[in-house]
Design a protein that fits this description.
The protein has about 300 residues and is α+β, with helices and mostly antiparallel strands. The protein folds into three domains: about 5-85; about 95-180, no CATH class; about 185-305, no CATH class. It has twelve helices and 13 strands. The protein has a six-stranded antiparallel beta sheet with strand order 8-9-11-10-12-13, sandwiched between helices. Strands 4, 5, 6 and 7 form a four-stranded antiparallel beta sheet that branches. The protein has a three-stranded antiparallel beta sheet with strand order 1-2-3. A hairpin with a 5-residue loop joins β1 and β2. The longest helix has 16 residues, at about 5-20. The chain is globular. The protein starts with 6 loop residues before the first helix and ends with a helix.
């Protein structure tokens, strides 16, 4: 096959080959999918007749491999195996999503970068609101079943209409769940020891906490849970804490009394985002604080950084 195909043409050809090899009664189509931080992926969707679930296979890495000279037949075989491992064995019961009383028990949120995602949110009618100037809080619904495993559904404006609720009620229910959620909180020393690293002699490492969800997904949202931040203030024996957004999945928290140079921390966050964190998982180059005196979560301003 000629290697001058566009990624869309390549995806369609790959889909046809997959359907033929597995002898499926299915229709295929290709779509661009908005991912976090303005990233776009090309999705190959395969909808088998009689199924209410259509898996999406992202073909970007396969296309790059093919353009780089990899054997097309091998790529087909790999895609077939990927489809077989991800396709549901039977139709999925999504009836719970029609009943807000069931949905509300599963409501949660994730934090993402506002500037990098705002256009996609507006394009896709995603329900979100601004937090601390440069972050967006996005309402999501968690689900878990034997067919598809665990995942989340992003709440959109038309979902609110179907449920017969307004945004105010949605956010009230989201935050009720955030405040009673369980969080995974560990010191940096505990994490390093758990990875087989040597014990740290620096006491400050024992006072730096990493916070996430138990499944380590979208755990940075913990920074807007008042109950979580209050608990960590208690652990830190400090009325104010500094929060570093290490990714959309977790944040690092340091007692304010240990932070003499906030500008240095902000520089560290920027450098890590640029060199370590994947583009889809970057949350922000800013740093934040929480005060248990004022119960305020806020971004540290550029002016404060310059005078620190």
């Amino acid at each position: 096959m000629e290697r001058n195909l566009t990624i869309t043409q390549f995806a369609k050809a790959l889909g046809k080959a997959l359907v033929a090899q597995l002898n499926l009664d299915a229709e295929i189509f290709v779509q661009k999918v908005d991912k976090n931080n303005g990233q776009k992926l090309t999705g190959l969707v395969i909808r088998e007749n009689g199924s209410n679930v259509a898996p999406t296979l992202y073909v970007d890495s396969a296309y790059k491999a093919w353009k780089d000279g990899h054997n097309y037949e091998d790529i087909i075989d790999q895609t077939v195996e990927l489809y077989k491992s991800t396709k549901p064995s039977k139709s999925v019961d999504v009836s719970f999503y029609l009943d807000y009383e069931q949905v509300k028990q599963r409501l949660f949120a994730k934090l993402v970068n506002l500037k990098a995602n705002k256009a996609a949110f507006n394009r896709n009618n995603v329900v979100y609101r601004v937090v601390a100037e440069d972050l967006a809080e996005v309402a999501i619904v968690g689900f878990e079943n034997e067919t598809m495993g665990a995942g989340t559904i992003t709440v959109k404006t038309d979902h609110l209409e179907k449920w017969g609720i307004v945004e105010e009620q949605l956010w009230r229910d989201v935050h009720e769940n955030l405040e009673k959620a369980e969080w995974k909180v560990q010191t940096l020393t505990e994490i390093i020891s758990g990875l087989g690293g040597a014990a740290m002699g620096d006491d400050s490492m024992c006072s730096m906490y990493v916070c996430s969800t138990p499944n380590l997904m979208y755990g940075a949202v913990s920074m807007i849970s008042q109950s979580c931040m209050e608990d960590i203030c208690e652990k830190c024996s400090d009325d104010e804490i500094v929060i570093l957004p290490s990714s959309v999945h977790e944040c690092i928290i340091i007692p304010k009394k240990l932070c003499e140079m906030t500008m240095g921390l902000a520089k560290m966050v920027r450098e890590i985002n640029a060199s370590v964190v994947s583009a889809q998982e970057v949350l922000s180059d800013s740093i934040y604080t929480y005060s248990r005196i004022t119960h305020e979560f806020r971004k540290v301003s550029d002016k404060e950084l310059k005078t620190a």
